[in-house]
Write a structure and sequence with these properties.
Elements: H1 2-17, E1 21-22, E2 34-35, H2 38-53, H3 60-80, H4 84-100, E3 107-109, E4 115-117, H5 122-136, H6 146-150, E5 158-159, H7 160-169, H8 171-186, H9 199-205, H10 210-233, H11 236-257, H12 266-284
Parallel strand pairs: 3-5
Antiparallel strand pairs: 1-2, 3-4
């Protein structure tokens, strides 16, 4: 935290001096140019912290190498707007570094049920996992793969919860990315085609101010982060109940904001119908 506070103003000054900024356009919610080097602060703070902490895990070195590669892919994309295929190739190369050093997801054990060993499939599964998380959190400028790599640290042999844990923590960008893809497929668009129907766009369209939208998104993120802690500490039955609750919550967020389509509201329409029926029933008995 202290390191970040010290280097943040320096990085901001450098980014504006060399014009490394993201300028407003019709898809952006910010109205002034902002630095694209926010990820640089996180990366430098992380590396300095590692240097000071002298970690002993063998997995740290390849994760750092892959993370740095992913960082440069992200920062180049922010500046030059890389084609999706080039960005994907860069992400796969970064993920492959980790696999080359022998860090793979070898098996997954479920709270209730069998343990599944992946065998040779552990290599593509690990690469897909890193790339998938990276693209789900690509809102983090220049440091898209940070959480994707750290989620593997210590998780060579993982449980379903440890695999699901970072997904719940990062539920907001996952929801935004997943349902953006569903929305575009449903509308006959390419899944990589940009639009103005992301979560923050939808909240603004509902009448919330920019400040209220940011606070709402932060609140949703905090709620899911707390849920992930409860999930991690729960017994098998608790895990199942939390999983069901999380899925229902995501569905309600999607319906309320219209992330798929403004007319997609099966649960909300059912609740509305039940309330209307209850109101008519009370009226008839007066």
């Amino acid at each position: 935290m202290v390191i970040s506070l010290i280097i943040t103003p320096i990085i901001i000054k450098v980014s504006f001096k060399f014009n490394l900024v993201d300028r407003p356009n019709y898809r952006k919610v910010h109205t002034k140019p902002v630095s694209v080097m926010g990820g640089t602060v996180i990366l430098l703070s992380f590396l300095i912290g590692l240097w000071l902490g002298h970690p002993i895990e063998r997995a740290v070195k390849p994760l750092v190498i892959g993370l740095i590669i992913m960082y440069f892919v992200g920062i180049i994309d922010d500046i030059y707007d890389l084609k999706p295929i080039l960005k994907l190739i860069g992400q796969i190369i970064a993920a492959s570094v980790v696999v080359f050093y022998g860090i793979t997801i070898d098996f997954i054990s479920f709270p209730i049920g069998p343990t599944i060993h992946f065998g040779i499939l552990s290599i593509p599964i690990t690469i897909i996992w890193i790339v998938a998380i990276t693209n789900a959190i690509n809102l983090i400028d220049g440091l898209d793969g940070f959480i994707g790599f750290l989620s593997l640290l210590g998780f060579k042999n993982i449980t379903f919860i440890s695999l699901f844990f970072p997904i719940v923590i990062l539920a907001v960008p996952f929801i935004d990315t997943l349902f953006a893809m569903i929305r575009r497929v449903r509308n006959g668009q390419h899944i990589m085609q940009a639009d103005k129907s992301h979560l923050h766009h939808k909240l603004l369209a509902l009448g919330y101010t920019h400040r209220q939208t940011v606070l709402l998104i932060y609140s949703i993120a905090i709620m899911f982060s707390l849920s992930s802690i409860i999930l991690y500490l729960s017994q098998p039955l608790g895990v199942l109940l939390m999983f069901i609750l999380i899925v229902i919550t995501i569905e309600l967020i999607v319906e309320f904001t219209g992330l798929i389509d403004d007319s997609y509201r099966p649960i909300l329409n059912l609740i509305s119908k039940k309330n209307d029926d209850a109101s008519r029933h009370k009226t008839n008995h007066k």
